[in-house]
Automatic annotation (TrEMBL), chain A:
GO BP annotations listed: glutaminyl-tRNAGln biosynthesis via transamidation; regulation of translational fidelity
UniProt xrefs under NCBIfam families: gatC
HAMAP family, sorted: GatC
Disordered: annotated span: 74-99
Name used for this protein in its record: Unannotated protein
Pfam families for the chain: GatC
From TrEMBL, chain B:
Keywords: ATP-binding, Ligase, Nucleotide-binding, Protein biosynthesis
Name of this chain's protein: glutaminyl-tRNA synthase (glutamine-hydrolyzing)
Database matches in NCBIfam families: gatA
Entry annotated with the keyword Heme: no
Catalytic activity: L-glutamyl-tRNA(Gln) + L-glutamine + ATP + H2O = L-glutaminyl-tRNA(Gln) + L-glutamate + ADP + phosphate + H(+)
Stored Pfam families: Amidase
Molecular function (Gene Ontology), one example: ATP binding
Protein's UniProt keywords contain ATP-binding: yes
GO cellular component assignments: glutamyl-tRNA(Gln) amidotransferase complex; mitochondrion
Recorded family membership: Belongs to the amidase family. GatA subfamily.
Extent of the signal sequence: none
Sequence ranges assigned to domain Amidase in this UniProt record: 23-468
Name of the top EC class for this enzyme: ligase
Amino acid sequence: MSSLSRDDVAKLANLARIEMTEDELVNLASQFGSILDAVARVQELNLDGVKATSHPQPLENIFRQDVVLPSLSPDQALSGAPAQEDQRFRVPQILGEAE
Amino acid sequence: MINKTAAEMSNALAKGEVTSVALTKAHLDRIADVDPKVKAFLHVDNENALAQAAAVDADRAAGKALGPLAGVPLALKDVLAQKGVPTTAGSKILQGWKPPYDSTVVAKLKAAGVVILGKTNMDEFAMGSSTENSGYGPTFNPWDLTRTPGGSSGGSAAAVSAFQAPIAIGSDTGGSIRQPAALTGIVGVRPTYGAVSRYGLIAYSSSLDQAGPFGRTVLDTAMLHEVISGHDPKDATSINAPVPAVVAAAKSGNVKGLKIGVIKQLQGSGYQTGVLARFNESLEILASLGAEIVEVDCPSFEFALAAYYLIAPSECSSNLARFDAMRYGLRTGDVDGASAESVMNSTRESGFGREVKRRIILGTYALSSGYYDAYYGSAQKIRTLIIEDYKKAFTQADVLVSPTSPITAFKIGEKSEDPIAMYLADVATIPVNLAGICGMSLPAGLADEDNLPVGFQIMAPAMQDQRLYQVGAALEAALVTKWGGHLISKAPALGGAK
């Protein structure tokens, strides 16, 4: 039986940038055991020598000419922005002043 | 008029028996009448739909050459970007977002003169099998309003089943077109991976996602399939090859001499009695039409569900990182002095629903160092084994078949507290996605125990989509003769105030 603690889930939530409530952390930790047991079935087979498939198509890299094509205008690109300033996305502070 | 097939509507439009404006109005009226009960739509686009319809009517009056679906109304799953029209993917994190561009599917629909009635409800970011995971409330199954229509494309399936639109677009990552088609008694096709451009399709799991058509008949579904298919330089995984002749196949339906393989692993325990009864009946019909029925063995399919629930969450944990509250969508917690990181944490907490968070966390776990090989790595190897099982099976049969869903439509709330039970709804549809091949679900009748629709699944190799339509059309014709009409004519009327 697999299990994940409340603190394990909190660590994963932090990595995934989701500020979960205490209820959510406890709830997800309690469900995670059975979910992990279900997906851990992939470990039942001997997979030595089996190649991994990341994609269903046998594709090579796709190249194109490096030419400028019509694209979104600045106004269009900014049309869904939560905040903007001087034709740019306005974002919260990224670098702390104390650092 | 709304009870006709899309092919019949197309003929009536071409002959001038009806205008697209009248046809569109009739569907908008039907939506106004029944959607308060069904809740298939997140956004009904009256104004644009009527303008599009008027433009097609004007083009027709001017004698312009028009495609077969010009002027025919359609419902669009809210996972596809449509310029200037609210597009949410069923998530609160995209509430109010209006894309500044059209997805390729939408561009193709517009070029073909198809009238887009509005955007349909779905499980948030296409994660779910019941449409209950929508951030905007569930959709109800037109056959029984206490039940789910399946998912994740439940809104599109319900809209077609409730005669709110003759055809619709869905997307299928693990069965999200075929399973709701089965549960609502209509036809749904997941085309070969790469056959329909993913440009502007909001990503859940990029190596599995594929948009595709819904219709009430095999021919209607084929007509829509043809319109949205084709190579697109904007999608690097788009296949550069001619579109399979799906409409011709749907018109010629014939199974004489064809080998049909029944997958041993996709039946038996866990499958509802009435589902298996209708499935076996369809097999007998196909045999009576001259097909040879063989049994094929796909031993790795037993592990498909486990592999899928590692691969899809892993890809989703990466894809959904783009919802960072910086460039579009929701932003919360942006108070004076808040860091970018705390704004991201707060926005993603309030914008994502429960199932989306569950899958992001599962994917983050499966990809983390120390667990990567055991989980994601093993799942990718299982994926190889499933592809090999299919390859071998397709040397023994031209198409493969199974029930689409092990069960008929389940009650709202019945599985929403039990993620594992919900995941099992996709057990028969997932192998197709992992292998990147194509699959169809079409109605096989009603289960005796609950009088709810049962889906029959047909699978064909990559870029052999025409085989789905060839077999589907033959089976459909025989069943329609047997029933004295399409299964959908047995659905409840739902007629409301009018």
